[in-house]
Amino acid sequence: MNKLSIGNLLAKVPIIQGGMAVGISKSGLASAVANAGGIGVIATAGIAHLADDLSSNFIEANNRIFAEEIRKAKSLTRGIIGANIMSALSNYAALAKVAIKEGIDIIFSGAGLPLSLPSFLPEGNTSTKLVPIVSSAKALMLIARRWISKFNYVPDAVVIEGPLAGGHLGFRKDNIFNEEYSLEKLVPDVLSQAKTLEDRYGKPVPVIPAGGIYTGADIHKFVKMGASGVQMATRFVATYECDASNEIKNAYIKANKEDIIIIDSPVGMPGRAIHNHFLDDVASGRKKPFTCPYHCITTCDFKKTPYCIANALCNATEGNISEGFAFAGQNVWRVDKIVHVSELIQSLNDEYAEAEKNDLNNSR
Questions:
Q1: Which of 118, 112, 182 is nearest to 155 (CA)?
Q2: Which secondary-structure segment (H or E) carries 360?
Q3: What is the Cβ-side half-sphere exposure of residue 89, based on CA atoms within 13 angstroms?
Q4: How many CB atoms lie within 10 A of CB 360?
Q5: What is the DSSP letter of 13?
Q6: How far is the C-alpha of 332 from the C-alpha of 315, rounded, in Å?
Q7: What is the mean pLDDT of the chain?
Q8: 113 φ, ψ to 5°?
């Protein structure tokens, strides 16, 4: 596979490990991906879910644990470490400042429009790259115009996430399975807008497709379209190095195609998850009583929602999946075993080479 350049950062393989929050992708997984030549990503939402002082000290607890995870990851690798910081987090600004202070290589930011992200960079800081995650070319241009006009900052790259991704989705429910919104249809427009930015400002804006990418052949397909690399998340959960509980990994392995469902998340967005009894209870109207001491997601109407999604995901992360659930991408049913990250990267590389070989043979 080709290498991936984002500014002065160079990943040996063009794979970004997607940020999976509430304890799924922390320093363990991120450092393993970085050591294998990709870009490892620490997800920040719910990162302090085990902290004793979380309820009483929400901002400080998350800042402290996040800083510890960055330092731990950096002690385990010389590779590239990024952070995924959802713009809908109520402590978004605090986490962005921690990431920059700790010298994170890249901040990936989506779940809304991260319009203020460059404001957290100290003047002269060029070491931390800023990459928005979008669901359309229109969103990229809205963000780029704001960043350029207010902060004189052109995005260092862009992740275009399609509707087959796991977790929260940036699409209306009736568009999730609409072919007009498929990743293959979204990527060309984003490539065009990125080229416009590059031509106008003289700065490359690599395009990184995400959502439903599963094999090396998938990677080859999007690289052939003009993408610089891909972002993958689901595949990395079923690895020994992933920070997820064994219960979540086993849920991935046992999932059948019909188990993958779209849910209405308390944060006001649709999400893709693995069906279980907890989600049945919620769908049937059974409430899961909770108190909300910190209102972690700004879009969550915690007074009306039947359950706390943070608690549910924390329970799953801690192994109590019957009192929560696992987010996953559309292709999770294809996962059949746990492997090491290095094995996964190698198999993707082999599949990519095979796809390239077949493409050359077919063109003769």
A1: 118
A2: helix 341-363
A3: 26
A4: 9
A5: S
A6: 20
A7: 92
A8: -100, 115
φ and ψ at 161, to 5 degrees? -100, 120
Burial class (CB in 10 A: 0-12, 13-18, 19+), 41: buried
Token code pair at residue 197: 């930015």
d(CA 69, CA 77): 12
Q: Which of 235, 251, 272, 253 is nearest to 322 (CA)?
A: 251
Rounded Cα–Cα distance for residues 214 and 207 (Å): 18
Residues counted in the chain: 364
> Position of tokens 């416009």?
196
Where the chain has pLDDT below 50, the residues are none
Nearest CA among 120, 107, 105, 109 for reference residue 87: 109
Exposed, middle or buried: residue 308 (CB in 10 Å: 0-12, 13-18, 19+)?
A: buried
Report the alpha-carbon distance of residue 170 to residue 84 in Å, rounded.
16
What's at 63, amino acid-wise?
N
pLDDT in tens, 197-225: 999 999 999 999 999 999 999 999 999 99
* 3-state secondary structure labels for all residues of 54-66: CCCCHHHHHHHHH
Q: How far is CA 363 from the centre of its chain?
A: 35
Which pair of tokens denotes residue 275? Answer: 């069906």
Nearest-angstrom CA–CA distance, 6 and 29: 21
Cα radius of gyration (the chain): 19
Q: In terms of Cα–Cα distance, which of 135, 326, 354 is closest to 234?
A: 326
Q: What pLDDT, in 10s, does the model give residues 7-51?
A: 999 999 999 999 998 889 999 999 999 999 999 999 998 888 888
Both tokens of 228, joined, read: 């610089």
Region of residue 363 (phi > 0: left; psi between -120 and 50: alpha; otherwise: beta): alpha
Distance CA(121)–CA(116), nearest Å, equals 10
Burial 79-115 (b: 16+ CB within 10 A, else e): bbbbbbbbbbbebbbbbbebbbebebbbbbbbbbbbb
Yes or no: say if 251 and 166 are a contact pair by the CB < 8 Å rule.
Answer: no
